[in-house]
Description:
The protein has helices spanning 8-12, 17-31, 58-73, and strands spanning 35-43, 46-53, 81-87, 101-105. By secondary structure, it is of the alpha+beta class. The protein has a single domain (16-105), classed as Beta Polymerase, domain 2 (2-Layer Sandwich), CATH 3.30.460. A four-stranded mixed beta sheet has the order 3-2-1-4, with helices on one face. α2 (17-31) runs antiparallel to α3. It is globular, with a radius of gyration of 16 Å. 16% of the residues are buried.
Amino acid sequence: MAVALLHPSSQIQDISPAVTDYLRFFGTVCSVQSVARVGTVVEGAVLHLWVDLSDDDERGQNVIYDALRRYQASEHAHAVTVDLHIVFADEDETAFPSNVELDFVRE
């Protein structure tokens, strides 16, 4: 049996620029304090990103929309088409679809 050690950066180098751009966008969305949860639904080539807000923080909403614009303007945005859906704090709980796969929940 042979054992080989992987260099720690070897796995990082495998991340494509498209994934890096999306993760930057996703991380920014999750960093907004009023974001209670984030989930996804994939339909063909479109990733529906559902963002549930715990309060009506206008600054936080602007951060999310700015992050989306930066992502869409990135060189690799064509790899993942994101359709953003924001559920505002004053909306009914049913506005956040039940078939959404949760990717982030603020605890």
